[in-house]
């Protein structure tokens, strides 16, 4: 039997060790056991294993000692750590140290089999599948879509390769339009779940009263209109990856329910009595500073602690402007393919120079919109600077979504004493708000998400304000009327 089926179990409690061994033997694995860190290290130095399953507390050290050794030696074994019940700090520490996943005592044997199988790319109760060449190519494609030679993107790609090997939750931080979902898909593609579902959810686009039903599903008759059973996002992502975009927009009540689902690894559909176990990897993203949201009482600290095990900052386009040429080439190829345009147009030197001189407040999403318009309006095989619908320059304020340069104090508010007071304050404020929203939309090329981020609003808040003020806009299109 090869090392791909051989496991090392480390635990100083004979009864538990026997339980783990019997469970895994029934799954067709070959096992070796150790009671201490020293015994485990001796076995690891003598041979390689598919995975190491270790208790956190051991007589001569801890499971973290084994994790650190595996990391230092650049070993390929995936590590699963078993922690005491309710010890969230130990679980997070283990994931940060490189553990593939963790289990809490008392160990649920069904979950135990599932986690071990996932670590080895198997389905519990079935033999390991053969890795084919097509699967390997699919993994590489996800990462290859993150174009650009800049040091900032190479660092992101290196982090993706590293975190793809584990089940650790990852929080993606970055402005709207930087490509956080693309990074999440690359993490999924680099992991053992690459051939399983990837479910992306925009938390800011779901009405608050529907959040629980959308996330966890519901049973027929649970509420008016529930005419049949329906699975939620968690069930749809079973075995794969659930990506929660704009996680900072979740209301506090839903944050509490999400935290419980993460901790218990189970969900209860609306109207159901029993909980359903879920086995998935959770990735999340936000354009907000969640630490500041925690300090302001708008985001739960315990949920932030669970989500922020590993953080990847996705840099804005203005910090990787040297990547514009590579990104544009990939975008033009995809846009032309979707539109059936042959041959694929290319950017002339003057067009590239103009793009390189622009700060892109809307980031990669704005660049894509610019290229879409240029391709639609120009029939040339080479796009020139005049084909690009871009302003000649952009202010520092525009390039940072309203942030002032470091060290710059805001100008004092001037209140002219001779200005007439409005006779209808509510109508006056509505008109001021309407003008601000229209200005933000215009500066962000009528992208509602980007405009909302510029003003510190979620997409849901932006839609509400626009509806209240009668502003009708489709993304990328000027307002109607």
Structure description:
Helix content is 42%, strand content 13%. The longest helix is centred in the C-terminal third of the chain and has 19 residues. It folds into 4 domains: 117 residues, Rossmann fold, CATH 3.40.50; 175 residues, Rossmann fold (3-Layer(aba) Sandwich), CATH 3.40.50.300; 81 residues, Orthogonal Bundle (Helicase, Ruva Protein, domain 3), CATH 1.10.8; 53 residues, Orthogonal Bundle (Arc Repressor Mutant, subunit A), CATH 1.10.10. About 8% of the residues have low confidence. Strand 1, helix 1 and strand 2 form a beta-alpha-beta unit. The chain has 20 helices and 16 strands. The chain is an alpha/beta fold.
Brief sketch in words of this structure:
This protein has 481 residues and is of the alpha/beta class. Helices cover 42% and strands 13% of the residues. The longest helix has 19 residues, at 425-443.
Furnish the topology, listing elements before pairings:
Layout: E1 6-10, H1 14-26, E2 30-34, H2 37-46, E3 51-55, E4 57-58, E5 61-62, H3 63-72, E6 78-83, H4 88-96, E7 101-104, H5 109-119, H6 133-144, H7 151-163, E8 170-173, H8 180-190, E9 198-202, H9 211-216, H10 233-236, E10 241-245, H11 252-264, E11 266-267, E12 276-277, E13 281-286, H12 290-295, H13 301-307, E14 310-313, H14 324-339, E15 346-347, H15 349-356, H16 363-377, E16 382-383, H17 396-399, H18 425-443, H19 448-454, H20 459-468
Parallel strand pairs: 1-2, 1-3, 3-6, 6-7, 8-13, 8-14, 9-10, 10-13, 15-16
Antiparallel strand pairs: 4-5, 11-12
